[in-house]
Design brief:
This protein is mainly α. It contains seven helices and no strands. It starts with a helix and ends with a helix. The mean pLDDT is 84.
């Protein structure tokens, strides 16, 4: 039991270290303006996916922050922005479909850089923690595509 507890604490500390590192990277991106540039690049896509929500600049900014953090594998950093966007979207008339789409995108979580998984792999001794990138890209693209397809189909069925 003591050895298991020691392993659990050691593993938790390594995860906390990775979490702090990538959260720090996200903070640097925000302070340098890189996150804002990234959000601007995502705006056309987000405005197409969330046309009602995109009318409100504050909601659009939260959506872009949320998607950007998820793309970088920073789910913990994506949560506050996602909650802000969801809360504001819930007050919009007729935005229920867009709110469901936000949940789908957050659940499927398209990731370009899976930082949490790389941290776990590194803590467990992987020689190259990011060698799983092609598999992560394919699987997250497939999950987002399936989620968007299902959301679109269910929206059409619900309206009938």
């Amino acid at each position: 039991m003591l050895q298991g507890a020691q392993s659990a604490v050691s593993f938790s500390l390594s995860l906390a270290g990775g979490l702090c590192l990538w959260s720090g990277v996200m903070e640097l991106m925000e302070r340098s303006g890189l996150a804002l540039s990234f959000s601007r690049a995502l705006r056309p896509l987000m405005a197409r996916l969330f046309p009602r929500a995109a009318r409100d600049e504050r909601i659009l900014q939260s959506l872009c922050e949320n998607l950007g953090a998820n793309l970088l594998g920073l789910g913990n950093a994506a949560t506050p922005a996602g909650l802000r966007a969801a809360g504001a979207m819930a007050a919009l008339p007729g935005a229920a479909d867009e709110l469901c789409l936000l949940v789908v995108l957050n659940s499927a979580s398209l990731q370009l850089l899976p930082t949490a998984i790389a941290t776990v792999r590194a803590s467990l001794g992987a020689s190259s923690a990011f060698d799983i990138l092609p598999a992560v890209w394919l699987s997250s693209l497939a999950s987002v595509s399936a989620g968007l397809l299902a959301a679109g189909l269910l929206r059409r069925l619900w309206r009938r």
